[in-house]
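Support request from a user on the community tier.

User writes: "When I paste my C-alpha cells into the form, the page sometimes reloads and wipes my input. The last time it worked, I copied everything first. Here is what I submitted, just in case something in the input itself triggers the reload:"
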C-alpha cells in the first residue's frame, strides 16, 4: 500500500451556488453520495487487484476491468461536470472567445449546437451523458453520447463539456422531467472553464 488512491474532488463552488437550477439538496446528494460512490468503487477495485497479486489468486479479469471502466468513467465525468458549471447569475449565456468561435465554426451557430447537444442528452436511453469533445485528429469539436459512464467513449478525445442525465442528476428537483433539467442547465454552464479545455 502507500500507493496513490482516487480522491473525491471537492466542488469548485458552494453547495448553494447552482440553485435554483440544481438545488443544494440535490447537489449534496449528487456529489457527496453518487460521485463519492464511484471514487470508492474505483479504489475498491485497486484493492482487489493488490490483494489478489499479493496472495497470488486469480481474478475475473473480464468483469473487474469492465467494473473499473465504469467507476473510473463515473468519477472522471463527475469531476468534469462540476468544473464545467458555475454559479447561477454568473454563468450560462452564449459563449464568446475561442470556444464561441469553435462552436460556431463546427455547428453553424450556437443555437444549432445547443439544439444538437440537448437532443444528445435527452435521447440517452436510461443512464448516461451528453459530451462535447475535441478530436485532436481533425482538430474539431464533436458530440458524443456516453451510455452509463463508459459505453461509446471515444478514446483520447478531450472532454470539453458534459451533462449528466442519469436520473440521480435531476430527479430530486425535476422528477422525471429531464427536458426541463436540460433546458435550465444551460444557465449554469461555465464557458470560461470549457474554453480552458480547448487545446
Ligand atoms: Fe451523476
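"...and here is what came back when it finally went through:"
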Amino acid at each position: 500500500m502507500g500507493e496513490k488512491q482516487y480522491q473525491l474532488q471537492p466542488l469548485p463552488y458552494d453547495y448553494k451556488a447552482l440553485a435554483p437550477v440544481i438545488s443544494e439538496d440535490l447537489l449534496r446528494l449528487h456529489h457527496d453520495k453518487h460521485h463519492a460512490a464511484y471514487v470508492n468503487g474505483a479504489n475498491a477495485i485497486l484493492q482487489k487487484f493488490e490483494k489478489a497479486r499479493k496472495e497470488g489468486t486469480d481474478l475475473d479479469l473480464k468483469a473487474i476491468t469492465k467494473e473499473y471502466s465504469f467507476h473510473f468513467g463515473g468519477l472522471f465525468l463527475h469531476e468534469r461536470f462540476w468544473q464545467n458549471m458555475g454559479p447561477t447569475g454568473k454563468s450560462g449565456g452564449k459563449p464568446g472567445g475561442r470556444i464561441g468561435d469553435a462552436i460556431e465554426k463546427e455547428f453553424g451557430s450556437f443555437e444549432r449546437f445547443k439544439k444538437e447537444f440537448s437532443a444528445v442528452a435527452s435521447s440517452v436511453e436510461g443512464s448516461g451523458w451528453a459530451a462535447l469533445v475535441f478530436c485532436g485528429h481533425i482538430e474539431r469539436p464533436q458530440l458524443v453520447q456516453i451510455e452509463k459512464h463508459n459505453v461509446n467513449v471515444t478514446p483520447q478525445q478531450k472532454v470539453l463539456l458534459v451533462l449528466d442525465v442519469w436520473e440521480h442528476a435531476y430527479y430530486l428537483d425535476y422528477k422525471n422531467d429531464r427536458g426541463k433539467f436540460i433546458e435550465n442547465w444551460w444557465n449554469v454552464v461555465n464557458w470560461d472553464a470549457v474554453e480552458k479545455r480547448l487545446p
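Agent notes: The reload is a front-end session timeout and is unrelated to the input. Strands lie at 128-135, 140-147, 158-164. The chain has a mean pLDDT of 97. Escalated to web team.
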